[in-house]
Amino acid sequence: MTTQQNPSGRQDQHHQSGMSGQQGTASTPQRSGRGFAGMDRERQREIASQGGRAAHASGNAHQFTSEEARQAGSKRHQNAAARAAAQSTARSDTDA
User: What would you measure as the largest C-alpha separation in the chain, in angstroms?
Assistant: First the structure.
């Protein structure tokens, strides 16, 4: 941010946000160009990747064992089946 003094003696503050990180098309709205969300996707991936490597290096990142992964996958499929059954029941109740 830069501060400039205008002729009346007041200070005006101007944000300098680069537009280089924006990826806009005709169908998507322009981003504000500020913060993590304003960066292009490749730069976001780069920063997130650095965070992941740092977490693993410091020992803070969780690494699933094959048994934990198997249990998590099983729960996911059970939950999906339960949601599908609930939606099916809800549809049949509204169709009657």
Answer: 74
What CA–CA distance (Å, rounded) separates 36 from 28?
18
The three-state secondary structure class of 47 is: helix
**Structural domain boundaries of the chain?**
66-90
| Tens-binned pLDDT, residue by residue, of the chain (96 aa) | 555 555 555 555 544 444 444 455 555 556 567 898 899 999 999 999 999 999 989 988 888 899 999 999 999 999 999 999 998 888 777 765
For the entire predicted model, the pTM comes to 0.36
Q: State how far the Cα of 19 lies from the Cα of 90, in Å rounded to an integer.
A: 48
Contacts of 38 (CB under 8 A, 6+ apart): 17, 21, 22, 31, 32
Distance CA 20, CA 40 (A): 8
